[in-house]
């Protein structure tokens, strides 16, 4: 089958377009003939990582096919799978580590529990585009009991994740949404349902941390850079909830390790966890909620997300589409950190 793969870690130069054997499936898997894949920053962050080869090869067996999101048609069904049949239109997000099967190839072996049927009225391109970002946004927001009208600030609202999260928060949960992006993306944020679009470069009373309102929730895919600013400036209500989305800089770091969440995040996670656990048994007052979010593939949840696309409550936002052979250029575009919605690949 045609596939993009890499056998050593590094820049886009390690990506090769060639042929690889088609995967064979296990009893709990389906073989998907992929029509569209979508890219996410974690693809290139793990690809760049120069870690010792015995760890790299354990986490990312080689040749490694990059990318996690796909949508296509079921070509074969494992012996134990009862939920799908050959010919079904499906979408899925693959696990990040310990598999060589990414989605930039004609066929992928997918655990049936990670896949969802795509409703007839939803295109396979749109289904691939919303998978990982949809799961991340919905899993993050599941940490908070919100009511319509509560206020939320969503950072990087114009990116792949943010452009989905803004819509979900506004149109599915009925929240009052503020979102950050650069000034050129103000109209775009508003078209997604943001009530307030904030230029993250603004200063003083126009800045996102100016203090009014105190948000009930902050969903932060810029946490590697913004966590201290969020927690230190009173921008979040004292009873609010910080959704720290595991993140890192787009710019390549030393040894392929980008500036990312570190000790500060783990200390905060422990501090707020212990404080709120103590409050729940009557020791001290309950404080701010704090969650550290990393996406988990989940076919059932993905089906719920696709149902909202079918209803027209949310839509896939496509920034650019590339062909499989153009994967290098597609990643170079995503790696600028300026994508406006999702970058998708037609297989
Ligand atoms: N933990 C998880 O499970 C998970 C899941 C998905 C994503 N993530 C992480 O979340 C981050 C965002 O992912 P993504 O898919 O949305 O990436 P993306 O599509 O590449 O995001 C690009 C967007 O980020 C915006 N941006 C850049 N710098 C910003 C800043 N300082 N403040 C506000 N917005 C800024 C840009 O807006 P302008 O062009 O207007 O500047 C651009 O539209 C990445 O680090 C990714 O790895 C984590």
Automatic annotation (TrEMBL):
Matching Gene3D superfamilies: Medium-chain alcohol dehydrogenases, catalytic domain (3.90.180.10), NAD(P)-binding Rossmann-like Domain (3.40.50.720)
Keyword Oxidoreductase attached: yes
Residue ranges occupied by any Enoyl reductase (ER) domain in the UniProt entry: 10-345
Keywords, alphabetical: Oxidoreductase
Top-level division of the source organism's lineage: Eukaryota
Any single Pfam family the record assigns to this protein: ADH_zinc_N_2
Ranges that cross the membrane: none
The name this protein goes by in its record: Enoyl reductase (ER) domain-containing protein
């Amino acid at each position: 089958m045609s596939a993009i793969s890499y056998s050593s870690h590094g820049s886009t130069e390690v990506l090769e377009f060639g042929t690889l054997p088609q995967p064979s499936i296990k009893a709990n898997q389906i073989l998907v003939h992929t029509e569209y894949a979508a890219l996410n920053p974690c693809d290139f962050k793990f690809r760049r990582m120069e870690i010792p080869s015995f760890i790299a090869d354990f986490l990312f067996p080689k040749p490694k096919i990059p990318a996690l999101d796909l949508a296509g048609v079921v070509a074969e069904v494992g012996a134990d799978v009862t939920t799908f049949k050959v010919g079904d239109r499906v979408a899925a997000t693959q696990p990040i580590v310990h598999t060589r099967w990414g989605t930039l190839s004609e066929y992928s072996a997918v655990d049936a529990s990670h896949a969802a049927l795509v409703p007839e009225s939803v295109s396979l391109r749109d289904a691939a585009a919303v998978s990982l970002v949809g799961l991340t946004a919905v899993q993050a927001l599941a940490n908070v009991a919100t009511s319509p009208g509560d206020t939320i600030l969503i950072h990087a609202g114009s990116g792949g994740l943010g452009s989905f999260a803004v819509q979900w928060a506004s149109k599915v949960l009925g929240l009052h949404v503020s979102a950050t992006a650069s000034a050129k993306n103000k109209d775009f944020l508003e078209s997604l349902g943001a009530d307030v679009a904030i230029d993250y470069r603004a200063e003083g009373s126009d800045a996102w941390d100016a203090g009014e309102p105190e948000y009930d929730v902050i969903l932060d895919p810029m946490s590697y850079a913004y966590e201290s600013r969020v927690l230190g400036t009173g921008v979040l209500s004292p009873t609010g909830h910080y959704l720290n989305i595991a993140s890192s800089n787009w710019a390549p770091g030393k040894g392929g390790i980008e500036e990312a969440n570190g000790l500060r995040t783990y200390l905060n996670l422990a501090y707020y966890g212990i404080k709120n656990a103590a409050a729940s048994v009557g020791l001290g007052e309950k404080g701010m909620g704090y969650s550290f979010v990393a996406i988990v593939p989940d076919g059932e949840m993905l089906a719920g997300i696709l149902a909202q696309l079918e209803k027209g409550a949310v839509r896939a936002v496509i920034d650019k589409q590339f062909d499989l052979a153009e994967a290098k250029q597609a990643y170079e575009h995503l790696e600028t950190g300026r994508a406006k919605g999702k970058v998708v690949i037609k297989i």
